[in-house]
Amino acid sequence: MSIDDVRRAARAIEPSIVRTPCSHSRTLSTITGAQLYLKLENQQFTASFKERGALNKLLSLSPEERRRGVISMSAGNHAQALAYHAQRLGIQATIVMPIHTPNVKVGNTRAFGADVRLAGEGVAEAAEIAAELAKDSDYVFVHPYDDEAIIAGQGTVALEMLDDYPDLEVLVVPVGGGGLIAGNAVACSALNPAIEIVGVQSQRFPSMQQALNGAPACFGLASVAEGIAVKQPGHLTLPLVREHVSRIALVDEPEIEKAVLMLLEIEKTVVEGAGAAGLAAILTDMDRYRGRKVGLVISGGNIDLLPLASIIQRGLARTGRIVRLRVGIPDVPGALADLTRLLAQHSTNIIQIAHQRAFTDLSLRSVEVEVTVETRGSEHTREVLAALRAEGYDPVLPYAEPHPDERRPNQ
Question: pTM (2 decimals)?
């Protein structure tokens, strides 16, 4: 792989790929202390960078290979990209997707005319099934990341970023199988050898880091960043990462969820878990990036609405903007009204309220009230708690987040 391969890919795909914005984020830069430039690949037509490599691969096929059709396995983004561009080029595509792939990705892939087969618990099992189907039906197998044409296509992200901001000091890239970071690393190393390239993986699926360190493979059950929940890095991508990438950072689920919410709230852009992994890495290690000019690849935006809604609700709870209080009150008429009146006086909005008498160790003459309220944040919550205590109540936060100092450190 060389910069020439990436440049050829850029020329080939340019007519059909969105040159996505690379935007300076003033607010995130203020929060992190670094100058952050976001490459918004979630603005591609299929909402991820995968279009670049998929199209470059399809354009490299001979007429005979196009007639045979293509097959691949994917957790979603590569599937949509391959299906979309195959449909444009008149090539039949078959995609094997793990059975737990988000519905939005399955539906979109089928909408682009692909024959979708849901099989396998993960990408590795789906790959085995796709390989067998390729042999049985004489399809051309298109690997989602371990292919030179795919890698070269993904590297065009860095060409555009360095064209816009040639003085970037750090490039932070999500890592699954390694196609995106390998292509970007090849391009950056040729155009700006001084740039530090940092890969980011889910702490539950650190396959690239484990392979680089020669550590045994060990994975969690699932991740909100399912797009990078890959158990086996590529045979082509691994040596490229070893040669060009400075380090692999790991981020855990709460940090990824926080980054998704921040990008939605601050940048007004919808990002999937994998796409937010780079920002999560910066937020958990801000001293490393402080004062530096950092390019951040926002790799995709395909997230189901239900997980997104859960991330929003959990994020509001973690930042103290939604709080659940447990309060004991006298079991007499008017006691509940007194409590709600006090909460209203301190500008809280009651979302839900319930009281029960059986499952409590309070006095028989008391009732336990559990009330969910909306506040302006943690400081306001502390003010409300102080006001309740001043009036003789003993409020408890049964579902409060632990203080940052009490959380276990990232591995």
Answer: 0.88
